[in-house]
């Protein structure tokens, strides 16, 4: 990213800037570029952390909902089925059904968690571009 020349950096017409002035400009530009890359990395990490937090919230919500459902519906189903069969078999059938539900909720949470990328990818790419440019600034 090129910055516009500032008045204190101006060189009188017809004069070449000194090596010291050029090095000062390069150093300043590199510092600015580095600060911008750090800010980009921070923004990317924050965005990914937000996604991870939402996925973790889904895990927690699924666990709590699964617990409540398992508790109350299981009790109702066991009592209902115990009118038709032995109470032990009724409890085993209800437990198997809720195990399937918990597995589905877990799979959904896991698939969402996989979309989270801990690497600030745009920052890595721009840093690679900056490195390529620094090695061959005329290309």
Q: Which value, in Å, is the CA radius of gyration?
A: 31 Å
**Number of E strands:** 0
How many domains would you count in the coordinates? 1
Range of helix content: over 70%
Total of helices: 3
Largest sheet: none
Sum up the overall morphology in one term.
Answer: rod-shaped
Low-confidence runs (pLDDT<50, min 5 residues)?
A: none
> Average pLDDT, to the nearest integer?
83
Short description:
The chain crosses the membrane at residues 56-81, 87-107. The protein is mainly α and 139 residues long.
Helices and strands in order, then pairings?
Elements: H1 19-81, H2 87-113, H3 121-135
Helix pairs in contact: 1-2, 1-3
Organism: Streptomyces lasalocidi
Protein name: Phage holin family protein
Pfam families: Phage_holin_3_6 (PF07332)
Structure notes:
- This protein is mainly α and 139 residues long.
- The chain has one domain (20-134).
- 76% of the residues lie in helices and 0% in strands.
- It is built from three helices and no strands.
- This is Phage holin family protein.
For this entry, give a set of tags:
transmembrane; mainly alpha; membrane; single chain; 139 residues; Phage_holin_3_6; transmembrane helix
